[in-house]
Each structure stands twice: as structure tokens, then as C-alpha cells.
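To whoever picks this up:

The parser on our side crashed when reading a file containing two proteins. I've narrowed it down to the boundary between the first structure block and the second sequence. Both blocks are reproduced below exactly, byte for byte. First block:
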Amino acid sequence: MGSVHELTASALEQAARIDLAAAFRLAVRLDLHEGVCNHFSVMLPGGRFLLNAYGLHWSEVTASNLLALDGEGRILSGEGEYEKTAFYIHSRIHLANPYAACVLHTHMPNATALTLLEDGRLEMVEQNALRFHDDIAYDDIYNGLVVDNTEGDRLASALGTKRVMFLANHGVIVVGPTVAEAFDALYYLERACRLQVLARMMGGKRRPVRPEVVQTAYRMMRDDAPKYAGAHFTALKRILDREEPA
């Protein structure tokens, strides 16, 4: 029989696998995915992390077919291979930022649309956007595919301690201390970007929110984030279990 530590680590890994697989499948339902591209990861005890295997549609991802990797890119468990860009983006961010236990990278349509604009900034003019006040990094240099530690480290440095990074001409990265918090932020980021894309299409001047209101609303939502994100993600998983049991 294994030690208490081994049993605890095993239980933590299984819970992480279930949550990460659910995040992939929910992303399909919410149109946050793209082909067999993009990638989600979550850290495990001992410096390992889970990552989706290359070639799987996100609707095919399950807790059991996620890969477990070490920081050198060795596959410790699971079958298949991983996308090179996935490893260099996720491993370097996990290494640089302890807060980033979960790292989500997507080309979700509305957020990515903002990265195509010279002035592609998420403006603090709507309640969902206020969740991200002073919590977004902007990488305005597109260097092509991320295929080495140097570029991975550059992205990790540009992200710093922020929760969100817009990647010029590319997509977004969202991080969090749990899968639930990262996914909740990803969901609301795309909602906020969708509204701003629509507002820009309508023309006219965006209505500003008073700075003191921006700051107060942001603090309130950040304070409640763990509880709210947990409830939101748990509700989404209930729907998934009921309608699409793995």
C-alpha cells in the first residue's frame, strides 16, 4: 500500500485530470476552440504538468488521455505526442509564475479579433471587462511560432504576474491558481471581448466608467473570484456530466 503522500498526490492528480478534461470539452461547447490546435495545462505535485495530446479534437479529451510531462519535455505518462509550441509556452509560464497553476491558450474568436488591431485593448467600459482591470498584459510583438525556450521565456516575462495576456496577431493566454478560476476568467474574457467587438462595429464613442467605480468593482469581483469561479465551473461540469458523460 502506498504512503499517505503518494495517495494524496494520486488523488490530486485525478482531480486535476477531471477538471482539465472538463475544461477542454466545455471549451468546445462555448466555441473557444480551434481545430486540434491550442492547449490547456495544469501543474501537478513534483514539477510535472498535464497537457493535451496532439491530434485530439477537444471534444475527445478525457481525464485518462491527458499527457503528464516534466519540465524537460519528457512524457511521464500517457500515449501520443504533444505539440512543440504547447510545451514551450506552457512549461516556461508554469516555471516562471507559481500563480499560474493552470495555463489556458486559445484563439477564441472575439478576443483574438482584438489582437489584430493596432489599438487592440480591452477597454474598461463594461462590467465583464472590469474583472480584468490592471490585470492584462499586451505582447505587441508577433514572433511567429513558439518553438524554443527563448521565445517561451519572453512570453512568460511579458505576462509577468498578470492573469491575461493578449498576443499580437495570435490569441490569448489566461492563467489561474485552479482550473476553475482560469476557465471562469477565460469565459468572461471572451464575453467581454465579444461585447467590445460589437460596440466597435456599431461605431460611436464608448461610454466610459468612472475610474473609482472601475477599481471598486474590480476589487469586489477579484475577492469573490474563487467562490464564484468554483460555483460556475461546478455547474458547467454538472451539465457536462448529465449531457455528455465521458
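<<boundary where parser fails>>
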Amino acid sequence: MSGRFPLKARECLGSPARKRAYNELHFAETAPRYDLATRAMSLGRDAAWKRRLVEALPEDPSPLCVDLACGTGDVSFLLAERYPHGSVIGVDISPQMLSIGRKRNRYGNVRFTRCDMCVLPFPDASVDVLTGAYALRNAPLLGEALAEARRVLRPGGTAAFLDFAKPPSSSCRPPRYWLLRGWGGLWGLLLHGNLEIHGYIAESLIRFPDREGLRLRLREAGFTAASSRRFFLGILELVVLRRGPIPCAGSIIP
């Protein structure tokens, strides 16, 4: 154990303030080996999933793209390649992640800024494309993050989110939890000497909506689903959305 990260995820994710503070410490600890960890835990597939996310986005000559929870910049850089005449802003809560992203950046149309995804520093309806790889699950308050995403996205704009998926069937959840907890814990131990570091993935899903619940939350927030795709035997899912009107109470479309 490193001694720098004594917190246990399960004890810190019950309130928005504690979750935000936990994630600041968590991603400060993981930043130096984050890219290695994502490759290892995905068996080398993480980069392909992120490419699929960006490939699913619409054609646009010069969009403003915002990449939520951008980490060290993988998706931000893919957006820069997809939209060479556009602008890309990667946002993240972790200064350590952003520092690595800035060092990796070789694109003139990418910049990074620190902020909470629940309080985005962009005007209403100013963003054409919004992305997030492993983003929404880390929001201190999911509802606030979705409201902010919709606020900054222009009408008809596109949002795409890749994240771990919680199965709707309650009988499938315990095996999925222990699989993720064990696999993440192993890599946390190997890379950081700390089972808690990547065991966080399994813990964060406990309070996150399942697939059906997430779709309901997205519709309630004013997004309409355009497409979805699952990866890694359904452990992860990519959803592509459009900003639409916020439905009236009782008018949620199944």
C-alpha cells in the first residue's frame, strides 16, 4: 500500500461531497499509471473502444467538442484527429491527469481545463459534441452532470458516453461485482500496491443506475438515444445521444 491513499471507496461514495473529494485523491494517485492500467484491465481493448466512440459521432466541419472527465487525453486527441478544423476542450477534476494530458498534447486544436462536470464553464447551447469515457459514473451527482451536459449542448447536438454497465437483472449483479472487484483489485495491487485503487470501479457501480435506469435518467434529462453498443461481454456500453426537449412529467417514452 502506497500510504498516500488510505481511503476505501465504499465508505466515501455515499454523499456527493465525499465522492468528489475521494475522486480527487483517487485520480491523483492513479494518474502516473492510469494509461497502463486501462490497457491492462481491458486486455488491450480500451483504445479500440474509444475509437468506436469517436467514430460514432456525426460529420461536422468545425465543431466545438468538450470531453468530460478527459483524464490523460485519449478521447480528446481522437476528437482532434476526427475534427481537425474544430476545437476540443478536455475537462477533468484532477490536476495530475490534466498535467499528463498537456504533456502528451501535440494538437493545436486541443486544450485542457480543470472543472467539475457538474459545473461546466461553458455558455448555454454552445457545444456541438460532448463525450465522456468512464465519466458519468464518477459524477458526484449524476442528475446535475446530465443537466449540465444538456445545458451546454446545442439543440440537436450529440453526446456519446462509454462506461461500465450495470446489468438490469439483480441476479447478475453479484457475479459482475466480484469479477470487477477482483480484476480491478489485482491491477491496483500490481500497479499501486493497493487493492482499493481499481476496486473503485466495482464500488462505483453499486449506486449507479443499471442500463434501463440510466436510459430513463437520460430521457428525463432531455436526451434521445441514437445508438448503443456493448463491449467486453456487455461489461461496458457505448451510448450515443442527441439533445432533445426535456419531456413533461409522465411523458417519458419507453
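After patching the parser it read the second block fine. The first strand starts at residue 64 and ends at 68. The domain at 9-166+209-243 is CATH 3.40.50.150 (Rossmann fold).
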